[in-house]
Structures are given as structure tokens and as C-alpha cells.
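Throughout our pipeline, every protein is held as a single compact record rather than as scattered files. The remainder of this section carries one protein's record, kept here as part of the documentation.

===
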Amino acid sequence: MLVAMDLNASPLPEEDEETFERHIEEYTAPEEHVETAVEISRREREERRRRLKRERPDDRSVNGPSVHDRPFQARNHRSYDRNKLPPGWLDCPAFGQEINFIIPSKVPLGESFNDLVAPGKRYSSRQVIHQQRVLGRKLGLVIDLTNTTRYYPSSDWEREGIKHIKIACKGRDSVPDNAAVNSFVYEVSQFLSRQKQTKKYILVHCTHGHNRTGYMIVHYLMRSQSMSVTQAIKIFADARPPGIYKHDYIDGLYAFYHERKPELVICPPTPEWKRSSDLDLNGEAMPDDDDDGVSAAPGHEKHEVDVVMTNDDKIGDDIPPEQQKALQQFCYQSLKLPVGGHRGPSQFPGSHPVSLNRDNLQLLRQRYYYATWKADGTRYMMLITVDGCYLIDRTFTFRRVQMRFPCKITNDGFVEKTHHFTLLDGEMIIDTMPDSQKQERRYLIYDLMAVNQVSVIERPFYERWKMLEKEVIEPRNYERQNVYQSRNPYYRYDLEPFRV
């Protein structure tokens, strides 16, 4: 068979070749658009990838294992220098607007960094105090969230009569842990509650004053006011643009408070002051390098693992010792127990079981009593407050859990604010679902000692039992039913650590 060929025709390009016209389209920038440093970095990276693909199409099979098959290597290969400036610090705005007497800020740098920062760009403790004083704000507390001590000595603040608190939080591939969040919320709440006439302000900073700082401030807003995660994130973003710009921090907030993330909520882009040199190969912002030279651990994919529950499991998160002492005193006061002594309340104040011997049998003849099935679980009292629920074990140790307990329903059909200082007694059991064989925890409440700071232990048990149903159980079930029936439920009761 004969095939006609045009010897003057240009050969067709190979699959991995590109035509001259395509290069013109890619490399000629439109006149009306000026590329930013971030866009230039991303474009150059894509061009390098395409060029390497053309030059070494068989690199995987010839040169050895792929990137995924190689052992883990640290993302940051730069040598650690305690005297270098934090990446992007110079162009990062110094501080944002105040939020309920809290000022989000980037980290102030001590005098040891003066040689690296021009006089007009310096931002030390002196500049911070002066700038806030000009705005009519007097600082009384500084909370440092960085994971290093190299930026400034705490004495810079203490010499000026300003309290300094260090809550070290890793600034790399993980959000602050729950114990650190509890400490932050407690310190802020205590400082503001002790203010009498002259209100002093709190300066909160991480390295740049956006992700860790925003994460903590949003937690405080959620626990001190009635609002959704979306509202709290927006409040911080308006005060410190662009707000939290790391996906895992935003997702972590919604997950912690058991709220659905609306589709309209979009993570802001990396700020311009995070220069192209501070972006990794994927165009994402490099982690804040303030971990005293400790490299971040390799990330692990999350796999759902069926963990066998036991009655010995610890439920909830640690709280500061000072907060625990205050909550212990409230429990003793609610139960009309003496709080005196240098050690204060130290023993579990809940009722204790007694043996059904001959002497105790007389009590059954003298009083009415209730009979119930014997639950094989763990004894816990529960203290419900606005800023969280606290499980109290037999050692009188408090651990915080994220639960929701709305107050009783009003005449308009709406649920009022959540409970505040309501004390319950009960037992935590583990149920095994017959159809799925899945385990889940359930808290069985069998007594009510205080409702919204009012002790009720002197009332008869049958009255306390009715109050428990009306004040605690019914409002919670009512709201949960309405949430499930709504088209866009914002709160997910099914994500709580246990049922009630």
C-alpha cells in the first residue's frame, strides 16, 4: 500500500514536546496583570516540574525509588540559627485591633536583634508599650505562645510591671494541645475578672500573631460568650486580617466544638508578607521556625482505628491546678461541707455506697427508697459551667470535656443560655450496640446537687429527681431533636465524647 507524504510539512511534535506558540502563551504575561511574588514562585515551580519531566521522563525506573518510597526527610533543611529573624516578620503587621481587651500581636524582638532590624522596623517591648499607651491602652499581661525563649527575656516586661505568662505551643504541623488551650482561657478569664476600675489589656502573641494566637482567642470567645465557631473566627479575622490562614487550625476549631463547617467558610490565602522564599514546594506557608531547632515530626495519615474502651480510660483534658482548686471549693460549698484547713477540700465529696447489712436494713423500713439496676461503670460527678463540663473522679481530679447543656425552654419555645455551675452525680458506663457491636459511653445521672450555683441538696430526693428531668435532661433532648430536624444543623451531638 502506498502512502502519500508531504516532504515540506513540519513534523508533528512529540507528546512531551511543546510548540513555540504554547511557550509564548505561557511565558508572556498579560499587560494588564502584574504578578505577585507568590504567583511568580508558583509559576516557576510548575515550569521546573514540566522541564524535569521532559528531561527525565523515566527517572523513577532508572534512578531508584520514587519520592514516596524514600525514607522521611525533614522538610526544613536550613541550619538552625537562634539569632535569625523569624521568616516574614519584618513585613508582618505589628498588631491588630483589640478583642474584649485582648490585643493580637506578632512577637516583639529583644535588643539582641537590633543589628538585623532597621530602626524604623523595630518592634520591641518598649515600642509595644509606647504604641499601646498612645492608643490609650495600658498593658497588664503578656501571653507568649511561641515555643522558644530566644526572642526576648521575660524581664523586659516584668521591669515595667507587666505580668508575663509562657504557654509554649508548637508552631509547626499541629494545633495547640487542649491542655494549653485550657490554661490560656483560664489565665485570660482570671486576669479580666480581677479588673476593678482601670481596665488593663492583654497582649497575646505567637510568631506572627495569626494562627496560634487566633486559635487561642477563638477558644476564649467560644467559652466566654454564646456564639458559633464561624462568628468567633470572623471576629478575629476582622481584628487581625486575614485572620487564621492555616486549614488545620480552622478545621480543628470546628471539630473541637462539634460544629459543622459551613461550605461558605474558606481559608484565607497566605498573606503577602509571607514571601515566596517562605513557601514550600507546594506553595504553602513554611511553618513558624521557633521550636528551638527541634524538627517537626513526620506527618502521619489519620486512619480510623477501633479502640477498645475500658472503665480505666481517662476522659477529658487536664486543667490548671489553680482552676481545679476553685472548682473543688465550689463543690464543697454546694454540698454544705466545711472548706477549712490549710489543705482545703481534698477528698471526693460524693455519696458513698454502704453494705446492705442488718443495721442498714432498718433504713429501708424507715424511709421510701428507689431501686435500680447495678451499673458496672466508673463513678463520676459532673460540673457543668459556661466554659465547659468537668468530670470529677474518685480522686477529686477534674478533667474538661466538650459537652452542651442548654437551660430549660422559655415560653417562646427557645432554649435559654447554657447551665453554669450545675453539679450532678452519676456513673459512666460502656454500652455495646447489639446491631453494630460498636462501643459507646453513656453517663447515667442519679442525683442533682446544684442548679446554676444554687444548692438543692436539702430538698427531698424525689424533688431533686424531678428537677433533674426538667432542668437538665428535657432541655438537652429538646434542643438535640430540633438540631437533628433542621436543614442545616450546626451542632453535632453525635460527636460528643459520651451520651447522657
In short: The two ends are 84 Å apart (CA to CA). The first strand starts at residue 102 and ends at 105. The beta strands are 102-105, 139-144, 163-166, 201-205, 378-385, 388-392, 398-401, 422-432, 439-451, 454-455. The first helix runs from residue 20 to 27.
